[in-house]
Amino acid sequence: MTPGIPPARPERPPLFLSGVVLDAPDPQALAGFYQRLLGWPLTQQEEGWVKLVPDGGGTGISFQAEPTYTPPVWPAEPGAQQMQVHLDFQVEDLAAAEAHAISCGARLAAHQPQDDVRVLIDPVGHPFCVFL
């Protein structure tokens, strides 16, 4: 090894993002919310695990049972459960997307940081955004 020259890295193996996993006290119930919201079919269901994938394939959303789940706080507050990840959905009509999400069981977050984004909270407390 030559000083100052990093060692060669092995070739990167193929990696494909299969999905995002959200913890929930009841994964079936939360999957039902997202199924109503997105219209995606349920592709996998077993004890403590549910997966939705868009028609035609692609990156899906899975829901896993977490009996000690604590909802995050939005916006963040010191000492409170912090949001680790959130979902962003691009939409064509912000008002219609917001109304649809609320009709599916979401609630509008009290804090809205931008005019072209709506932060919503799913039934177990995960923030998600719809944006133009």
From TrEMBL:
<dbReference type="InterPro" id="IPR041581">
    <property type="entry name" value="Glyoxalase_6"/>
</dbReference>
<protein>
    <submittedName>
        <fullName>VOC family protein</fullName>
    </submittedName>
</protein>
<feature type="domain" description="VOC">
    <location>
        <begin position="16"/>
        <end position="132"/>
    </location>
</feature>
<dbReference type="InterPro" id="IPR029068">
    <property type="entry name" value="Glyas_Bleomycin-R_OHBP_Dase"/>
</dbReference>
<dbReference type="InterPro" id="IPR037523">
    <property type="entry name" value="VOC_core"/>
</dbReference>
<dbReference type="Pfam" id="PF18029">
    <property type="entry name" value="Glyoxalase_6"/>
</dbReference>
